[in-house]
């Protein structure tokens, strides 16, 4: 046997032994020779050599041990030993153990799985179909570290091995750092020796040219330059297909990029039980792996919600789930969740001893990907950690304009020639970012939470955390103030969607600005580079977001932020801008207090706001505060005071204040309607509606229609009232303005009940049901109606209730509280159709 063949024979033999869990010394014992003797024979030392009968004995032993399973494997060993198949007689091939070898099973060198493959049904189906297509030659499975790319590749490849005449070959590249060694690794896996008469690449191409083979190239990310080799092999061997696993795509022609996502997880907010939780891949994997360390562990109704949250905390990553599940040996699911709520990377470690180092802790897995980045990309990856819940391309472009790179070793690495788009593209290609699916036109990106934690740690290490958080808070302050105005115009739904997408960033900006304000610190502004008082940032941000919190129905949250901001001490050195920010925040807080029927607090804070605006001699701010002061006046029946406040406000407004002018005219119309002057009411309302229509403010029009419907009840124009209220509710449904929906359904209940159609009893049941739906919605958003403050309202309630006995009344109201807006309105329309 030639030296080159001896080495290949030894490598192949060890592969077979390893697959069966056997050692070389055990083979020597079975052959009845010493272990050292066998070692000399395999290595060719001291003139040692394997005789033909020893080769055949080795093959027979391997077959008995099931270390080889196919006739092809036995023939491969004979070929490497330079022996022909007829060294075994026909009788031997037909007799055990050689007869046990399967002739039809294609060869593959995939390791036997030690745990069950879980939760990838969709990906398995799609990948199988893709690899079986005639026009597919290269598929790259890409995704973050620990997402299960290798396991998926091996699982599908084993299923498809029968579709390739020469089977499947797995090439492990995790230990290869030099792209030049990839060729050698492929040749070793295929047991190909280079010819002395031609370059190694030519020997490989010659061997592959007429074969139908699936080649798995595992962990390709750190040898990315070898992509040209893959391209060359695929071009030269038409029967060859490559399945690559990598944290970055290869970016060569014909590549099919196949993203391996985290395992499926229960959506946030879904009420879980044992049955529905078990449907998700992440939960299935966690349970499977937990049973390895605690055999009696089971999914129960009690622990299902905790397990679902654990899956979310680790992003549904298979590796992270396995590391977390191993902790079940010591912790309950609830305790494990509490641990993961802190420094999760400290918890997610302690993988199996036979796992690669990069998979023994999640930190190592992430660091592996991070270390492959250039210094430039490492800095920008860390900086993106300042965002929460995702970000837009606009935000990254703004960051690159303002935040300079620190000095790094190589001048070319510190170049800012790369655009924000380039940076995001490279990080996305390296599986360090996720592109979010959005319903609007703005592309958004995010990080898995585990990666986000690591990015923040790197940002702290770089000493940039404070300046980046300052920038972040100021950037989102600018966005919030732009959005506050945008919510008043024709693009309000676009702005609403953007605000919803950035909720986590706004919360983080508020937290940071309040923390900095407590320390009396200044903050670096986003574009100008100057410094701004943290008090001012917190106050302005909380104030600008008030319309959004109200619109969304997050009144308690909005109230909480505004209260925290106005609790900041009034510093003696506070400048005009900070005082104005405080006055605006107090005015916005007064509005929320009024919507929650906390009128005494409303009056207290809005009076302070009025005093500050007068101190600043700011007419626009004062007009807004006076407008908000009118709300508690109306709720308490002091219409004369409200009218006086409106008149003062109108005198203060300039021609540019059309939006606030329309709102004042709107409420002036309400006041005149309450007084019974319905013609003047319609005049005010028509003026107001004309301005709103010109501005494109559909939410204000929905509000106006609602109030018009309510006052039409006082006119006893019940048909008109119902028409206006239904229009308002339908508009509010499209806008998802929960406050208007709740109050609109409540008023509709009055109109239906007073109308008494088709009969008083049926109408009263429908009214109680609408009141129940209204109460349920308003209660869920923290709003407390103050209609009952008006004397006429209790009278109408008594009249409507009088048609029902106590049991029917309570049942109708109870049913209503269980209905969604859509269900309540469907029931209302059904009753109208029946009529």
Arithmetic mean pLDDT: 87
Q: How many H/I helical runs?
A: 40
CA radius of gyration is 36 Å
Major sheet description: 5 strands, parallel
Strand content: 5-15%
User: How would you sum up the global shape?
Assistant: elongated
Number of strands: 10
Sheet with most strands: strand arrangement: 2-3-4-1-5
Based on secondary structure, the structural category is mainly alpha
Stretches with pLDDT under 50, minimum 5 residues = 407-417
Residues in helices, as a percent range: 55-70%
First-residue to last-residue Cα separation = 99 Å
Tell me what you see in this structure:
- 61% of the residues lie in helices and 5% in strands.
- The strands form 3 sheets. The chain has a 5-stranded parallel β-sheet with strand order 2-3-4-1-5, with helices on both faces. The chain has a 3-stranded antiparallel β-sheet with strand order 6-8-7. Strands 9-10 form a two-stranded antiparallel sheet.
- The longest helix is centred in the middle third of the chain and has 22 residues, at 465-486.
- The model is unreliable at 407-417 (pLDDT under 50).
- The N and C termini lie far apart (99 Å).
- Helix 26 (534-552) packs parallel to helix 28 and helix 36 (738-755) runs antiparallel to helix 37.
- It has 40 helices and 10 strands.
- The protein is mainly alpha-helical.
């Amino acid at each position: 046997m030639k030296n080159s063949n001896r080495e290949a024979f030894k490598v192949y033999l060890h592969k077979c032994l390893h697959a069966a869990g056997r050692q070389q010394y055990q083979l020597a014992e079975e052959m009845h020779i010493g272990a050292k003797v066998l070692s000399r024979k395999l290595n060719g030392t001291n003139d040692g050599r394997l005789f033909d009968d020893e080769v055949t004995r080795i093959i027979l032993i391997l077959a008995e041990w099931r270390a080889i399973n196919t006739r092809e494997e036995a023939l491969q060993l004979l070929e490497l030993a330079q022996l022909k198949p007829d060294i075994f007689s026909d009788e031997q091939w037909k007799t055990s153990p050689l007869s046990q070898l399967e002739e039809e099973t294609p060869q593959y060198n995939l390791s036997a799985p030690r745990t069950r493959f879980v939760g990838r049904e969709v990906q398995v189906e799609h990948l199988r179909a893709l690899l079986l297509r005639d026009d597919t030659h290269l598929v790259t499975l890409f995704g973050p570290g620990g997402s299960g790319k290798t396991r998926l590749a091996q699982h599908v490849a084993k299923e498809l091995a029968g579709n390739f005449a020469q089977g499947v070959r797995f090439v492990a590249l995790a230990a290869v750092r030099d792209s030049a060694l990839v060729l050698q690794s492929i040749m070793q896996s295929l047991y190909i020796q280079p010819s002395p008469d031609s370059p190694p690449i030519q020997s490989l191409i010659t061997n592959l040219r007429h074969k139908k083979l699936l080649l798995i190239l595992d962990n390709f990310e750190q040898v990315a330059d070898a992509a040209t080799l893959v391209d060359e092999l695929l071009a030269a061997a038409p029967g060859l297909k490559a399945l690559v696993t990598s944290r970055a795509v290869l970016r060569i022609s014909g590549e099919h990029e196949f993203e391996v996502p985290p395992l499926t997880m229960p959506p946030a907010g879904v009420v879980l039980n044992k049955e529905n939780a078990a449907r998700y891949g992440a939960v299935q994997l966690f349970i499977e792996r937990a049973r390895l360390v605690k055999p009696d562990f089971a999914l129960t109704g009690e622990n299902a919600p905790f397990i679902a949250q654990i899956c979310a905390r680790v992003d549904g990553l298979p590796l992270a789930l396995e590391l977390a599940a191993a902790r079940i040996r010591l912790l309950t699911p609830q305790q494990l969740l509490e641990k993961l709520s802190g420094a999760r990377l400290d918890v997610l470690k302690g993988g199996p001893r036979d796992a690669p180092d990069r998979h023994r802790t999640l930190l190592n897995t992430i660091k592996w990907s991070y270390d492959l980045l250039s210094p430039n990309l490492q800095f920008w990856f860390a900086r993106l950690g300042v965002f929460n819940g995702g970000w837009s391309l606009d935000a990254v472009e703004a960051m690159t304009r303002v935040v300079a790179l620190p000095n790094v070793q190589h001048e070319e690495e510190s170049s800012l020639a790369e655009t924000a788009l380039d940076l995001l593209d490279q990080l996305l290609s390296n599986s360090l970012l996720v592109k979010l699916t959005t319903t609007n036109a703005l592309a958004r990106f995010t990080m898995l939470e585990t990666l986000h934690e690591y990015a923040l740690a790197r940002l702290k290490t770089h000493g940039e955390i404070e300046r980046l958080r300052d920038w972040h808070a100021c950037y989102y302050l600018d966005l919030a103030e732009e959005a506050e105005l945008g919510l008043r115009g024709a693009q309000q739904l676009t702005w609403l969607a953007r605000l919803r997408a950035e909720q986590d960033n706004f919360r983080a900006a508020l937290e940071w600005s309040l923390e900095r304000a407590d320390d009396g610190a200044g903050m670096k502004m986003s574009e100008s580079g100057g410094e701004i008082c943290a008090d001012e940032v917190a106050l302005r941000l909380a104030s600008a977001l008030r319309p959004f919190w109200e619109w969304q129905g997050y009144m308690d949250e909005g109230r909480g932020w505004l209260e925290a901001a106005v609790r900041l001490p009034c510093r003696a050195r506070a400048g005009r801008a900070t005082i104005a920010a405080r006055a605006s925040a107090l005015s916005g807080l007064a509005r929320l207090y009024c919507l929650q029927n906390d009128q005494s607090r409303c009056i207290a804070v809005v009076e302070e706001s009025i005093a500050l605006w007068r101190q600043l001699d700011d007419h626009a701010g004062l007009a807004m505060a006076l407008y908000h002061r009118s709300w508690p006046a109306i709720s308490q029946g002091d219409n004369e005071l409200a009218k006086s406040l409106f008149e003062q406000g109108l005198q203060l407004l300039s021609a540019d204040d059309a939006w606030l002018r329309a709102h004042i005219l709107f409420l002036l119309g309400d006041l005149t309607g309450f007084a019974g002057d319905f013609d003047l009411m319609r005049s005010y309302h028509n003026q107001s509606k004309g301005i709103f229509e010109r501005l494109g403010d559909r939410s204000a029009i929905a509000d106006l229609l609602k109030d018009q419907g309510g006052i039409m009840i006082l006119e006893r124009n019940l048909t008109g009232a119902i028409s206006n209220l239904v229009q308002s509710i339908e508009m509010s449904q499209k806008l998802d303005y929960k406050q208007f929906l709740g109050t609109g359904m409540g008023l509709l209940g009055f109109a239906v009940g007073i109308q008494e159609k088709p009969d008083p009893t049926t109408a009263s049941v429908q009214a109680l049901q609408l009141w129940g739906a209204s109460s349920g919605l308003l209660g869920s958003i923290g709003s407390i109606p103050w209609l009952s403050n008006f004397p006429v309202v209790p009278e109408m309630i008594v009249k409507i209730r009088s048609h029902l006995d106590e049991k029917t009344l309570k049942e109708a109201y109870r049913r209503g509280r269980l209905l969604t807006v859509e269900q309540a309105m469907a029931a209302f329309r059904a009753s109208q159709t029946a009529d």
